[in-house]
Write a structure and sequence with these properties.
By secondary structure, the chain is an all-alpha fold. The chain contains five helices and no strands. The radius of gyration is 17 Å and the shape is elongated. The protein starts with a helix and ends with a helix. The relative contact order is 0.14.
Length: 116
């Protein structure tokens, strides 16, 4: 949502800097969390455990959310909205907050099942 608000300010340099900062923080956190090197009581979903299914599910969801954001922003802009990117980002943010944990829980259940 923060990146959407910055984008709607129509300051290209600020948008570029915010995008690079978001990407760097996201990549660092993802690498740290996906490595599975921290203690947890929960089952860790690793590529070796679930194979390509987990990666395909996560990447597919991210591509779908990016498409929804882009199309929503274009439609809001065409309708004359003052902050089209922010408006388009709200339903996507809700989908991430509600759907992200559900997707990971489904991947954990799949990983916990015995393979036949």
């Amino acid at each position: 949502m923060g990146l959407a608000v910055v984008t709607d300010l129509d300051r290209p340099l600020l948008t570029t800097a915010a995008t690079l900062a978001f990407g760097a923080v996201h990549a660092t956190m993802f690498n740290a969390l996906s490595a599975g090197r921290h203690r947890t009581q929960r089952l860790q979903v690793r590529f070796q455990t679930v194979g390509w299914h987990a990666q395909a599910a996560i990447e597919g969801c991210l591509l779908a959310l990016a498409a929804v954001t882009t199309i929503g922003a274009l439609l809001a802009d065409a309708d004359g909205a003052r902050h089209p990117v922010t408006i388009a980002s709200v339903p996507v943010a809700v989908a991430i907050v509600l759907g992200g944990p559900a997707l990971l829980a489904a991947l954990r259940r799949r990983a916990a099942r015995p393979h036949s």
